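Morning!

This is the sequence you dropped in the shared folder:
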Amino acid sequence: MFDWLVVGAGFAGAVLAERLASQRGEKVLVIDRRDHIGGNAFDEYDAAGVLMHRYGPHIFHTNSEQVFRHLSQFTAWRAYQHRVLAKVQDGKLVPMPINRTTVNRLYDLSFTTEEEVENFFQARAEPASPVRTSEDVVVGRVGRELYETFFRGYTRKQWGLDPSELDKSVTSRVPTRADDDDRYFTDSFQFMPRDGYTEMFRKMLDHPNITVMTGTDYAEVKDRHPHRRLIWTGPVDEFFGFRFGKLPYRSLRFDHQTLEQEWFQPVGTLNYPAEDVPYTRITEYKYLTGQVHPKTTITREYPAAEGDPYYPIPRPENAALYKQYEALADATPDTWFVGRLATYRYYNMDQVVAQALSTFRRIEDAVPSVKAAE
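The structure's back. Tokens below.
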């Protein structure tokens, strides 16, 4: 008899499994239908010996000291600030998110102050009221031309929808800057796990109270391994047998390539916003990991309608459908739904960790521990 069955060995499942085992002394079975731990953050050494991410780049950043301190129990860190360039018309490479350098390079200008750049944006902005869609966000901030150059094609490829059809939250994730800060993220803590994500997950799950079974589906074990309570981190609609229909997700296809050269591109990620390029971005992992190697491995990302669920699609009708599943989830006893797929939210890694830690605190308040019962 296990005290807990945790379905999914990604951030949500691993963080909760470790807390339940180490803080409450409870027996936890962690399963994952994939053949590895770490979820989408799984990394591995490829055939050439280059450390790469099987499911595309995962770059850790957070403003939460609590989240950073928690994960620091299981990894040392390598400082890394991610930089992204976009390949636009005439093959120009310009910083993304848009900043002063972007504007100067695109328009052959020589702005030196934030005020000049803000005036440039304001002269082109077409504010919408109210702001509802992703198009409204960008056009209202920087105008239609920059929107067309950087956002429309990229978003249409990524989501299979025009930005005018997507909730404002999608493009709100990407800031627009008037200074020359060319970092993709501005969070207080920007690091990569020194020995990789998989090693961090291995240490997190390395506890005598935790049993891990990969290559294992929930349907195979739910009756075979008795358990008192359940943590579910998979798609919430799947848990309920798609009772109200499938929640829409966007998927990705990854084309990994090892090259007989030390470097391929000038930064960690190059974005390709043009619609006539079928992939959205190319990432070169050695920038992220700091690995020294004579070869390099890159990944091209091709968005797809079918495949593993990666991104919940933020549209009002999808949010309404999720609400129906959320009501079922709330009414399911001894079961906690955690993570991007289980709560149908476009969370970053640190947000999933924070949600898992918050869920653990709720469990502490609601469920007497095995220790307390002894």
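Headline: The domain at 2-57+194-247+312-373 is CATH 3.40.50.720 (Rossmann fold).

More detail when I'm at my desk.
O.
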